[in-house]
Structures are given as structure tokens and as C-alpha cells.
């Protein structure tokens, strides 16, 4: 297949127009994705390269259902007061030391983001962080930025920590353990480097006020102790199942729904309220993208693209360079545009390379690292960043306000420093990245 | 019980009025807010004590974590909590455009239902487009307790 057919052109035009609509933000991205999906199916049926059945099969049910299940578990955990409880104890451990507070808060959001949705983690932690800083009379800006960036980095470590990872893991059939083993080291190195860099960049703002630290009190932090125990048990079961899902031949989505079932039976929540808290617009956005890119794949365009790229990646010596290039391109694009459409497209291109006999394992890890780290570059690079910016504005403290320029002054060094560290680990331990 | 019998007559806020003057009217008449009449004489919004506090004194993070605050927070320095300066500011920047108006012939039960629907404590009563006063939950309760509700 060497020439571009009219079907390929048609699917490419629908894809490009859909992405232009999504990135231009002329309309909500979910509306753009649904519109693009409907047009892709319609044109595909007319031209004979795509069917309704193929479109439904193109939607990665494992990704969508896993996301929905995790959203439900977070919605059940949040009102119990678990996050408040964690924030109160972090303040106590830091004992008024601004640097320790930054490290502890960053560590907490990173660890939580490895299992739970990092956007929710930042939504919950950001107002608490401003309040803690208000009590300590310190500027919350470094903390808000650190939380957003390190939650993005923490989420990159696991299969369920970040939606792009979910998509990559699902498409490449990578287990939770394999993801943690391969991504753990680079993410750990990047995490340590980023915290160190942030402590240096914010050294002036992180000076102790020298006053007695006022602390939050834990007395009323836990609002539903019984509910907390039950949801923690359900989450514990999910985490254990994530570690063994490959051995038990369970899809991550099924493993997470086992936890949801336990939580639903033991907690008996208001089901309407629970389902109302699921972010359906995100799920339909993903489904729309899967259908759009599925149409491009059905037209044969991605195969053609993959064959061209395969020439570059076939040489084992060039494979590492291809991986590094992919990581940096993915990161830079993720800093300026939504990383999900890019990830969905790249997944199919990488899968296309496999049929050309290329070892695609290093490319999965490069893609995951790139999209995971790239979001830190600008305030629009990740949803968690936007929440941090919005919280800084709501604080009413002029010194806390994070403008796009202020974000980039820290975000770009953090992103490039992280990429350099990740590239070094990727290069030095390349052998490890040659397997999935 | 028609609300024209239980509404509390108040002044209205005008462009350029000081917040202190408007707040005093609310405090004196024991109402949570009063209407704002623009330069053309049209009732175009409301001044609300609750929203003034929300805008000037209680940041969202403090509301979010109120249950976590201890007793030693007297040092909390709200950036806009400068009462004297605030009272001297003009009211125009603190006006909310949504002012729910009811005809004076409405029954109190309907007023209570609309308060629930809009999650508010008070409504403005008008008669043929002219502002008559504020009806609050407490003014209805007072009418019930004092049997004023028996007046047609």
C-alpha cells in the first residue's frame, strides 16, 4: 500500500477538522469529538471504509469502563473526609516548615495520583493548600504549582494514574505491574529532580515566616468514619487486583468494577448522586476520539504512515533515537494541546509499526513518558494545572496569582529538566525498555 | 395571606451610594438585602449582605476547610476585610443582577415556595412595577406568630 487513496484523504480531513475544533476550543471538546465521530462514521459508510459496527468496536471499553469505575470510587471516597484528614496530618508533620510542607504535599498528591484521578486529587488538595498557607502566612503559589506538576508526574508512573497510560496499557496489553516496573524508575528520578528544582526555583517564597505555625485540626476532618473504612477496603481490593490482574486474566476495568461492587454493596450510596458525579463528558470525549481515529485506521492511512515510520525504526540503533524523538515530540505537543487526541492517534500508528516487524515496546514507554511529563510545560498542558491556576485566583491573594507567564517560567524548566532526566534513564536503561 | 401585608418597606440602593449606607438600611430593617435601582429608575439588581461577605471576607478555601479550623485563627488576615474602607466604597461593584420580584398580590405560600426554588431568604415585592418592600421568611413567620396572617 503506497499511494494515498480518496478514502484515506476523506478520513484524514475529518480527523484534522475534528482536532482543529477540539484544539481551537470554539466548542466544548466533547461536542467536537461526538460531531467528528458522527461525521467519520457517515463518510466511512458512504465511501465504504468504515461501518457502525467497526466504530463501536473501535471504542476501547476497557479504558472507558476503568475510568468510570475509578471516578465512582473517588466520588465515594471524597465525602468521607479522607483527603482533609491527610492534609491536616501533613500540616502537623511539616510543623510550619515551608520546604517540608512542599515536599510532603507533593509526595501526598503524587502517591494518591498513582491510583486515583489526579484532577480530583488536585481539586481537593488545592483549596486545603491555600487554607494551610493562609494559616502559615505564606504564599500558596509554589505549593499549588508543585501539587499540579507532581500529580502529573506521579500519575505517569502507573497504568491507572493517567488516562493516556490507560489507553496505552489497554492497547498494548501492558499489565499494571509492568507499567510500574518500567515507568517507576524514570518517574522516581524525575520526581526527585522536579522537587529539587522547585525548591530551588521557589527558594525565596519558601522562607519560614518564623511565627508559631497555626495548624488545622483533625477533630472534624473525618465526616464518615464507617464509610471511609468501607471505601478504603474496596480500594484496597482494587489495588491488589491491579497487581495480579494479568495473572488472573482480568482486565483492569473488571478489577476496578469488583471494587465498585464491594463499595456499592457495603456503602449503599445514593445511586443517582453517584452516577451524577461521573464525568460523562470526559468518557464521551474519549469514545468520540476512539471512533474518529478508528475511522482513519479503517481507511488504511495509519498503516501507510506506520510503514513509512517503520523504515526509521527498523534499525535497532535507530529505535532508541526514535523513542527519544517520540518522547520529546509528545511532551512538547502535550504542553500546548490536549494530549489525549495525540495519544489515541499515536497508539494506532505504533500498533501499525508492529506489523512491520519493529519492536514497539520502547515506543510505548517513550510515549507514556512524553505525554506524562509534557503537561507541566504550560498552564493549559493538563487539567490539574488549570485547577491550580483557578484556585490561585480565587484565593484573593495578589502574590498567589499564577499567570500563564508565571506558570511557564517554572513549568518549562520543570518540563525540560524532567525530559532530560527521563531521556537519560531511557538511554541508560534502554534494555529494560525493550520489553513490555 | 397576601405578601403585600407582610412586606417590609425599605429604601432602595442607587448608583453611587456607599456600602455603609446600604448596609445600615439592611441592618435597621432586618432584611438580608435591598433592591438596586439604576440611573434610569429601573430595578436592575440587588445588594445582598451574604454576597458582600462572600466577596469581601470569606475566601473559598476558608469555606471549604471551615470544619478544619481551630480556635487560634485570630491572625487570619482577610485581604479585603478592611471594614472602614469597605463601607466607604460605592455599592455599584457589589450588585447582583438577579433580583426576583413578586407581585404584591401573591400569597405567602407562593413566596415561600419561590424562596425554596431559588434558595434565597428574601424576595422583592412590587405593585404595578413600583417597589413596595422586601418579604423574608422571618417576616412571614412573624405574621404567622402574631396572627397578622389573618388579615386578608
TrEMBL record, chain A:
<dbReference type="InterPro" id="IPR000802">
    <property type="entry name" value="Arsenical_pump_ArsB"/>
</dbReference>
<feature type="transmembrane region" description="Helical">
    <location>
        <begin position="143"/>
        <end position="160"/>
    </location>
</feature>
<feature type="transmembrane region" description="Helical">
    <location>
        <begin position="227"/>
        <end position="244"/>
    </location>
</feature>
<feature type="transmembrane region" description="Helical">
    <location>
        <begin position="344"/>
        <end position="367"/>
    </location>
</feature>
<feature type="transmembrane region" description="Helical">
    <location>
        <begin position="250"/>
        <end position="267"/>
    </location>
</feature>
<feature type="transmembrane region" description="Helical">
    <location>
        <begin position="274"/>
        <end position="296"/>
    </location>
</feature>
<feature type="transmembrane region" description="Helical">
    <location>
        <begin position="180"/>
        <end position="202"/>
    </location>
</feature>
<feature type="transmembrane region" description="Helical">
    <location>
        <begin position="406"/>
        <end position="430"/>
    </location>
</feature>
<keyword id="KW-1133">Transmembrane helix</keyword>
<comment type="similarity">
    <text>Belongs to the CitM (TC 2.A.11) transporter family.</text>
</comment>
<protein>
    <submittedName>
        <fullName>Arsenical pump membrane protein</fullName>
    </submittedName>
</protein>
<dbReference type="GO" id="GO:0005886">
    <property type="term" value="C:plasma membrane"/>
</dbReference>
<keyword id="KW-1003">Cell membrane</keyword>
<dbReference type="InterPro" id="IPR004680">
    <property type="entry name" value="Cit_transptr-like_dom"/>
</dbReference>
<feature type="transmembrane region" description="Helical">
    <location>
        <begin position="316"/>
        <end position="337"/>
    </location>
</feature>
<dbReference type="GO" id="GO:0015105">
    <property type="term" value="F:arsenite transmembrane transporter activity"/>
</dbReference>
<feature type="domain" description="Citrate transporter-like">
    <location>
        <begin position="19"/>
        <end position="370"/>
    </location>
</feature>
<dbReference type="Pfam" id="PF03600">
    <property type="entry name" value="CitMHS"/>
</dbReference>
<keyword id="KW-0813">Transport</keyword>
<feature type="transmembrane region" description="Helical">
    <location>
        <begin position="101"/>
        <end position="131"/>
    </location>
</feature>
<feature type="transmembrane region" description="Helical">
    <location>
        <begin position="7"/>
        <end position="24"/>
    </location>
</feature>
<keyword id="KW-0472">Membrane</keyword>
UniProtKB/TrEMBL annotation, chain B:
<keyword id="KW-0129">CBS domain</keyword>
<dbReference type="InterPro" id="IPR046342">
    <property type="entry name" value="CBS_dom_sf"/>
</dbReference>
<protein>
    <submittedName>
        <fullName>CBS domain protein</fullName>
    </submittedName>
</protein>
<dbReference type="InterPro" id="IPR000644">
    <property type="entry name" value="CBS_dom"/>
</dbReference>
<dbReference type="Pfam" id="PF00571">
    <property type="entry name" value="CBS"/>
</dbReference>
<feature type="domain" description="CBS">
    <location>
        <begin position="95"/>
        <end position="152"/>
    </location>
</feature>
Amino acid at each position: 500500500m503506497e499511494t494515498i487513496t480518496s478514502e484515506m484523504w476523506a478520513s484524514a480531513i475529518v480527523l484534522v477538522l475534528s482536532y482543529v475544533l477540539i484544539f481551537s476550543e470554539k466548542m466544548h471538546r466533547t461536542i467536537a469529538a461526538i460531531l467528528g465521530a458522527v461525521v467519520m462514521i457517515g463518510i466511512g459508510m458512504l465511501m465504504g471504509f468504515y461501518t457502525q459496527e467497526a466504530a463501536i468496536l473501535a471504542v476501547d471499553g476497557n479504558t472507558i469502563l476503568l475510568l468510570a469505575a475509578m471516578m465512582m470510587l473517588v466520588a465515594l471516597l471524597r465525602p468521607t473526609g479522607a483527603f482533609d484528614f491527610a492534609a491536616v496530618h501533613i500540616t502537623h508533620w511539616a510543623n510550619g516548615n515551608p520546604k517540608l510542607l512542599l515536599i510532603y504535599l507533593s509526595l501526598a498528591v503524587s502517591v494518591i495520583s498513582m491510583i486515583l484521578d489526579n484532577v480530583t486529587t488536585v481539586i481537593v488538595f488545592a483549596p486545603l493548600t491555600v487554607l494551610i498557607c493562609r494559616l502559615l502566612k505564606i504564599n500558596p503559589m509554589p505549593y499549588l504549582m508543585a501539587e499540579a506538576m507532581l500529580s502529573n508526574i506521579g500519575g505517569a508512573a502507573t497504568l491507572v494514574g493517567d488516562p493516556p497510560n490507560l489507553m496505552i496499557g489497554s492497547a498494548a496489553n501492558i499489565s499494571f505491574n509492568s507499567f510500574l516496573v518500567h515507568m517507576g524508575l524514570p518517574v522516581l528520578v524525575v520526581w526527585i529532580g522536579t522537587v529539587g528544582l522547585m525548591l530551588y526555583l521557589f527558594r525565596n517564597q519558601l522562607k519560614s515566616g518564623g511565627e508559631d505555625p497555626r495548624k488545622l485540626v483533625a477533630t472534624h476532618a473525618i465526616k464518615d468514619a464507617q464509610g471511609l473504612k468501607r471505601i478504603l477496603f474496596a480500594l484496597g481490593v482494587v489495588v491488589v487486583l491491579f497487581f495480579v490482574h494479568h495473572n488472573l486474566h482480568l482486565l483492569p476495568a473488571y478489577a476496578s468494577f469488583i471494587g465498585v461492587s464491594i463499595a456499592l454493596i457495603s456503602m449503599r450510596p445514593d445511586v443517582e448522586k453517584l452516577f451524577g458525579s461521573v464525568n460523562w463528558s470526559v468518557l464521551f470525549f474519549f469514545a468520540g476520539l476512539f471512533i474518529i481515529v478508528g475511522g482513519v485506521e479503517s481507511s488504511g492511512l495509519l498503516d501507510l504512515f506506520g510503514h513509512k515510520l517503520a523504515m526509521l525504526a527498523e534499525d535497532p540503533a535507530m529505535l532508541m533515537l526514535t523513542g527519544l524523538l517520540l518522547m520529546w515530540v509528545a511532551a512538547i505537543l502535550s504542553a500546548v494541546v490536549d494530549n489525549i487526541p495525540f495519544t489515541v492517534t499515536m497508539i494506532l500508528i505504533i500498533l501499525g509499526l508492529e506489523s512491520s516487524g519493529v519492536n514497539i515496546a520502547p515506543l510505548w514507554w517513550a510515549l507514556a513518558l512524553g505525554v506524562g511529563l509534557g503537561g507541566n510545560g504550560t498552564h493549559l498542558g493538563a487539567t490539574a494545572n488549570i485547577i491550580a491556576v483557578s484556585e490561585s485566583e480565587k484565593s484573593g491573594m495578589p502574590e498567589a496569582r499564577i499567570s500563564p507567564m508565571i506558570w511557564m517560567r517554572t513549568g518549562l524548566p520543570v518540563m525540560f529538566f524532567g525530559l532530560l532526566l527521563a531521556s537519560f534513564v531511557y538511554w541508560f536503561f534502554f534494555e529494560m525498555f525493550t520489553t513490555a | 395571606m397576601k405578601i403585600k401585608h407582610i412586606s417590609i418597606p425599605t429604601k432602595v440602593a442607587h448608583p453611587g451610594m456607599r456600602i455603609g449606607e446600604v448596609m445600615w438600611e439592611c441592618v435597621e430593617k432586618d432584611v438580608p438585602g435591598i433592591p438596586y435601582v439604576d440611573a434610569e429608575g429601573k430595578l436592575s439588581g440587588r445588594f445582598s449582605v451574604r454576597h458582600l461577605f462572600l466577596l469581601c471576607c470569606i475566601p473559598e478555601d476558608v469555606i471549604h476547610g471551615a470544619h478544619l479550623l481551630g480556635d487560634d485563627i485570630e491572625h487570619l488576615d482577610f485581604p479585603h476585610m478592611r471594614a472602614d474602607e469597605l463601607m466607604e466604597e460605592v455599592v455599584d461593584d457589589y450588585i447582583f443582577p438577579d433580583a426576583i420580584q413578586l407581585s404584591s398580590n401573591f400569597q405567602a405560600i407562593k413566596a415561600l415556595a419561590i424562596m425554596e426554588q431559588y434558595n434565597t431568604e428574601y424576595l422583592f415585592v412590587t405593585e404595578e412595577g413600583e417597589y413596595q418592600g422586601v418579604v423574608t421568611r422571618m417576616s412571614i413567620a412573624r405574621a404567622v406568630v402574631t396572627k397578622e396572617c389573618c388579615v386578608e
